[in-house]
Amino acid sequence: MGGSAAFFRPFSLCSDSGLIIRQFAMNVIWVLVLILLVFSNGHFSNGVSTNSSNRPEEVKIGSMFAFSSAIGKVAKVAIEAAIEDVNSNPAILRGTKLNLTMHDANFSGFMGMVEGKHFRHVEYLCYMEFLKCLKNQRRTLALKFMESETVAIIGPQSSVTAHVVSHIANELQVPLLSFAVTDPTFSSLQYPFFVRTTQNDQFQMAAIADIVDYYEWRDVIAIYADDDFGRNGIAALSDQLAGKRCQISYKAPLDPQATRTEIMDVLVKVALAESRILVLHTYPTWGLDVLSVGHYLGMMDSGYVWIATNWLSTVLDTDSPLSSESTDNIQGLITLRMYTPESELKRNFVSRWKNLTTHQMANGPFGLNTYGLYAYDTVWLLAHAIDAFFSQGGNISFSNDSRLSELNGGNLHLDALNIFDGGKLLLNNILNVNLTGLTGNMRFSSDRSLFRPAFEVINVIGTGVRTIGYWSNYSGLSVLPPETLYSKPPNRSSSNQNLYLVMWPGQTTQKPRGWVFPNNGRALKIGVPNRVSYREFVAEVPGTEMFKGYCIDVFTAAVNLLPYALPYKLIPFGDGVKNPSCTELVRLITAGVYDAAIGDIAIITNRTRMVDFTQPFIESGLVVVAPVKKLNSDAWAFLRPFSGSMWMVTGGFFLLVGIVVWILEHRLNDDFRGPPRKQVVTILCELGIHESRLIALNSPEEYEEALKKGPKNGGVAALVDERAYVELFLSSRCEFSIVGQEFTKNGWGFAFPRDSPLAIDVSTAILKLSENGELQRIHDKWLMSSACSSQGAKLAVDRLQLKSFSGLFIICGLACFLALLMYFVKMVGQYIRHYSGEEPESSGSSRSSHFQTFLTFADEKEEDVKNRSKRRQLERDPNRSNDGGMESTSAASNRCTEMASNRSVSFGSGV
């Protein structure tokens, strides 16, 4: 991540004139000497491969990073401590020692330039061309190298340097283990020998995206260093935000060597933007300078949100306590810190830290940051991998690189660089290591990222910091440490995402809205249709710049509920002669003519493609209006909805459907073995209307006149318009009514530019108006008339009186009476047949007894009556019963005799 950036001006590489160029060339050559001295994988003795025993006395490794940077000075102490701990433990490498050679990336201008902007895009071939160019300086230098057999390199620290060195590592098959490069573009495919032993910025940006989504913000501004580290990190942030339906609305790149004036120029542009969510992704060396300029410009006040990547936590852990000025500049900020779980091993190392840094504090004391922990664990990871390498029979040997041998004879002797034969085996062992270190469980997933990445979410308060939660790739945001959640199923639902209360800039705990109106809060230009009809909805007050109407009152009431002031100016749209096109008004928002539009604007498909609408504040849709024809209501009024032919067709379909059902079901369903049952059929008729029969009408007065004339007198039979207009039209014209159902559904809303946060806030306010009844009150004020309401007119027309159905009731009554009469006659006949002559009829008591017997008979099931009647008949004719019995007995006897005979025959055959 880090690394100091040197300050150099552009130069001509191949210029052979000038003292500055010659001095620079000498500096570069000396740096190359040191690099080859440290990292040469062979020696000058004719490029012969070097072989060592299986378990040599020592293994040479190198390291390169900026010793003076916030990350490098901590990492240097941690790496030296790790080398000492590994070498003092014979159980790790079983007698073999690690021999570390360290190179300071800030040693000269060359490495500083590589980390700066002038060599941001240097690749391997460009690197070779640069070396060839140096040879043209005609400088002879006797390059003498010590024999070195480096098998791995810890570093580099910056992304720019890593891109250059990784190509060389690929060529020489020497693993690079970086504890500080967080650039997410170092994929395993392009850089197979690069191993990241720290957290990937892809996960840090995922954490920031989750934080933005958690607080329901949608737009952020990215302020970043304009180099590989900054650009690639922000690209990852953009991808993560897109997954949350959020975006980076403005990118503010900064030159890695930017001056305070340049920083101020960039932040002034940021202050004029709409979003107030600022993500700062930069280096520890000048990140505080950006915040200092932001404080000077008033960008640390209430309403702003600053989210700093883990560079700020690195500064706080390393250089605390900060100066009072720097502390004031970071109040209320949120920053991330790579999460390392608490353990006995970590606590012991933290307690050693003061003793380890006693002799390192010439420039003042410094604390332990998480990069130092990862640097320490990197050495142990490499030691375990080397031990496994030897256990698998690996040897430290090197071979000539034919492509580098082609440069033999050059002054730089690049042909001395050889390929590490065991590089691939050592790389595989590095990726397969699984150990518990200061940072917790250290092993790699399939994409070569550290297993289960996690971050602390930190809020800067006063002179200290407060952990407000954690983020892990496993379960997202939580107030519980990540390791406590690993035993539970992962849950990334919004209800399961939690953070503690934050103290925001400006010393407030209220969540900032996250945006303001651009251009220093100028008044919004809001377009309003200048209607000439139905002015109850929206109308310009003559002689003023004011508007009135239902839509205006709704908008004003919604704005009054917003938690902030909304400066705006209403601008009429239209010529005042005819009603303007709302679609054209919406289009002008996309063209930047208006910032919003309010009025009777229906939310329809083609408009939603251009702008964002608020929650609908009134339902609408197309309906048909026709004159009400008053007819006398008589006993047969229920027959009028259908014509005579319609009744005939309906009756015919009763029979047709019954026959079809009977044919389909009678062989399968017992219920259809008899005559088919009658079915109910509803028949509907769609009446097409030719376009030539449509007439455009522009005002309620024209509506009324056309409907009264009718189609035979040059008018219309019905009109089609939106329900909102129709309700207002019918509120004072009871002789018309809505016919049929609403055949489209939409609503009216206020229009704002795409992704405008104001649309969300106004929608919330409209919902509040609906809940507290204010929306209905405004509706009644403008759209309800005392003369006649559309609902009352419709009910008066649709209701039928009792006499309208008297004929139907008479038919039903007669049918019921006849059915009961027939049933009663049938039942009396059955009673007379079954009970006649059983009791004498000589007394009044016998008549009462007959009546009670009749009631009992009427309550019995018909099946029981029939069974009792059969028994009585048998009792009355006993001879018939005996003959039947004797006949049955004889038949049974004959059957038994026949069966016995059959058995006898069977037995006889068996004998």
TrEMBL record:
The highest taxon in the source lineage is: Eukaryota
TM spans, by residue?
646-664, 805-825
Chain spans, region Disordered: 861-911
| Gene3D superfamilies for the chain | 1.10.287.70, 3.40.50.2300, Periplasmic binding protein-like II
What GO MF terms are annotated? G protein-coupled receptor activity; ligand-gated monoatomic ion channel activity
GO CC terms in record:
membrane
Q: How does it sit in the membrane?
A: Multi-pass membrane protein
Q: Which cysteines are joined by disulfide bonds?
A: 734-788
Tell me where in or outside the cell this protein is found: Membrane
> Main role?
Glutamate-gated receptor that probably acts as non-selective cation channel.
Indicate the family of this protein: Belongs to the glutamate-gated ion channel (TC 1.A.10.1) family.
Identification of the protein by name: Glutamate receptor
Annotated source species: Rhododendron simsii (Sims's rhododendron)
